[in-house]
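SAMPLE LOG
Freezer: B-3
Tube label: C17
Construct: single chain, 279 aa
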Amino acid sequence: STNSKSALKYAAAFAREHNATLYIHNSQEASLPPNAIKLSERALADNNYEWLVTIKREMESLAHSPLVTGLKVELLLTEGSPKNEIPRVIRDHGIDFATIGTTARPGLGGALGSTALSIMAHANCPMLFTRHPMHDFVYYKATQTNIALNRILFATSLSENDTTAKRLAFELARAHQTELTIIHSIGSFLGYIQAVSLSKIIDVEDRVRSDASERLSQLAKEASDITIETLLTEGNPSEEVLRVASEKDIDLIIIGTGKTNSSASLPGRDAERIVRGAF
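STRUCTURE (predicted):
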């Protein structure tokens, strides 16, 4: 699909930059023969797997795309639900970085599908969600790749669950010498009204702002070699992230989605809304 090709473009670019093996994975919930990807089209057809011939051709077409010229490419065709198989393949093959093409689901207000959300929650490596069309920062000329990252936005909840996302933001900013904006939204203070007396609301607001501002400053000090701007905003966190991303022409948004061993089955709604609304 167009979305898969968009994801492949980014996966190939990062694989080439880091001299990594590129795995192209597809999972099917229907029963598969052993070593299905290695069987000939004749063998598949003779055993009533004609429908697999098309899938095999599409995967092989991706593997021979000019995007992956010169890369070591492995094709993986597995049996099972994508929401379970993709995190499993990531674990079993020691994947360092994964890309997935996604799209909004018609009729659900643009919400991401449950498969994408489940993968986001349970994959144990950084994931890049792409869709077509979108803001592009990878360009090809013949077999040459240019990752043109100029501006990265790291959206943080200022919790320990953002540690991996923070590390990735710093590493990418250093590697590509980009500007890094770190944003934290403290949300609406209306929620405090029921918790404290009206006379204390202003004091609570000041303390929350001061604490968040100090923690943002500490984050910036952790990477003094990077050009960093910190932003403390008020309002709906996902709306604020998307607003800043648009205003600053951000190339890449990095967000943490929580711990992979969490009992929660899905990441937070803010993470979903950001992935859904980013362009």
